[in-house]
Every structure is written in structure tokens, then in C-alpha cells.
Amino acid sequence: MLNPQKTIELTTGGLTNPQATWESYLGENPGWQRTAMELTVPLAVTAVIIGWLLSVILGGYFYYGYGYGPVLSLILALVGAAISVIVLSLVVNLFAGMFGGESNFDRAFTGVSLAIIPGWAGIAVSGIPFIGALLQLAGTIVGLVFLYKIIPLALKVPDNKRVLHFIATIITVIVIQLIIGLVLGAGAVATGGGMQLQ
Prior knowledge:
The chain is mainly alpha-helical. It has one domain (4-190). Helix content is 78%, strand content 0%. It has 8 helices and no strands. Helix 2 (18-27) crosses helix 7 and helix 3 crosses helix 4.
């Protein structure tokens, strides 16, 4: 069930007091479905709408579904977000078990969703001309730092294996996302959705 008050609380806490927010929310042991409804989906929708509106109002560039309009942009962004969050959560979960932590998809999904709050904040401001891309990059970098910090808390990966877990996760997710991008890109070209030269 959507809970706007909880979404605002988690988002604000995730940006201003992340450690306490992580401990509190992970202490509630929410399932992935609850986390998706309270945090991941509303935050993704809000970030994409704000980013798109800022790009329209201020004349900036918003890359999610660029040129497709607000509805298709939102749909593309949500599909991309779902794929990204699920892939990252699955990989974090898989490697947690392999590196001496607990394998628990609910906690992996919650940890990933909490860690990427700054990334969504970056997407929300990415439509601002000139500085939007830099703010989005900063949000992504902070999100990666948060991911590194939250993994032991969410999945009990031992400190001596945290770096290896993090590196293996990032490399694996990049490879998987590249493969997904190539497959979807090839599908767009094959169906005529790609760029065509005149």
C-alpha cells in the first residue's frame, strides 16, 4: 500500500540522517513488496516527474525517454528503474551469501532501495540546465557510497569481505546492464525503433 508520509520520512531521513534511517527501516524487516510500495516506486515516479518538469520549464535535457513525451518517459523510466533495482538487489543478495553474509532478497532489496535515494534525488534535478548532469552524477556517487556502507547492515557481509563484495557486485551489475541494454537496443533497431539515416 502506498504511504506518502512514510515515503517522505524515508527519503528525508535517507538524505539527512542515512545511518539512523537505514537501521530503523531495516529493523522493521519490510518485505520487498512493502519497500517497493513505500519507497522505490513512489520515489522513482516522483523523481522522473520532477526531472521531466524541470527540463521542460528550464529548457534542460532529461534523458529518460527523451523525445517521447511525459507518459512514455515515465513508463520507460519505471521499467528501467525496476530492472535496475531488481538486478542490483539480486546480485547484492547472491554475492552476500558467497562472501559470508546472509542471503535475503527482502533485505537486499530494502538496502538497495535505501542506498539509491541520493541517485533518485539526482535524477529529480537532472533536468536543470548546465548543472543537472553534475548533480545527477553526484547523487549516483553518493548512492554507491551508501550501498557500500549499507551492505553489512542489511546482509551482514563481514567487514573483511565488504570491498570484494562491493567490487564483484558493481562489475557484475555493469556487465548485466550492458547485456540488457544491447538486447533492448537491438530489439529497438530490429523493429524500426532505432535511428534511421535518410
